[in-house]
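Quarterly update, task 2.4: uridine-5'-diphosphate-bound model.
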Amino acid sequence: MPTLSIGIPLYNEAANLTELLSRLNAVLETISTHTAEIILVDDGSSDETAKLCLAAAERDQRIRYLRFSRNFGQQAAYSAVLDHARGDVLVLMDGDLQDAPEALPEFLARHAEGYDVVYAVRTERPEGLLKRFAYDACYRMIGWASEHRIPIQTGDFGLMSRRVFERVRDALDKRAYVRGVRSWVGYRQIGIPVARGARYAGTPKYSFGKLANLAFDGLFAFSSVPIRMAWMLGGVTMGLTLLYTLYAALKKLLFGLTPEGFTGTLATMVFLGGTQLFFVGIVGEYVARIHDEVRQRPRYIVDREASLRVDGA
Ligand code: UDP
Ligand code: MG
């Protein structure tokens, strides 16, 4: 049985795979404390990823290959890794070499000191200013709104002990946000600085829309602040309305003046209409997530699974 599982999501990462496996291999050779398995999750790639993975699995008995029936997303791929890992510890890392395999020995060293979770904190980001700003804003927003403090500048790259990754696997929402749940389960956790490299080859597979979805999944899964804002704003509006009504009544009774102002009326109506739609939308976001949970659909569907040589386990 392997004692260290490494899970990697791949969506059209053929240009990175050879380099990734060779760097990972070099690192694994320096690790004598664990026997490894490498779980490659092919998230419905349409390039050569499948072919390369199968060839690699044929050469290397530590490699297991899992192919989704279509593209389900990176978080679904990580969720499949959680379901299939057999090791005592699990390392999650992206397949584009932005997560440096060379950080593994330090993860394991920290784990040996007694930490259940060792996650990488990004010290540098190679992305452009706009994307960096967007990431930062998202992390801060989620961090601020969450009832549970999720560390910022942290992705899924990191190590989990078995007791942690089993809890994460069981506690994961249908719209998975692994890094959030990993932080939420507790136990002893530590972040270590790891520079985030540039993508080795290929283009980012996360579109702006997908990134925004991930941020919303993090926000809504860990916070009731958005929904709470509705009654807070509602309360303030009611209070102000009451005051204004009193003021108008007094003005009428004492001075015989009736209130006027068409613009004010119109602005109030539009404001109220807008806020109501806005908060119906927010309630809708929670409802959509409840719907996802209730439907109980799997997060992903496996089309084929291969660990070509049985390693006696
Ligand atoms: N990925 C995936 N499915 C997707 C999108 C991405 O499995 O639908 C994988 C991708 O192959 C890579 C990792 O998730 O290994 C991170 O993706 P990407 O580099 O595009 O994200 P970024 O680094 O820009 O956050
Ligand atoms: Mg990347």
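Highlight for this quarter: The chain has ten helices and eight strands.
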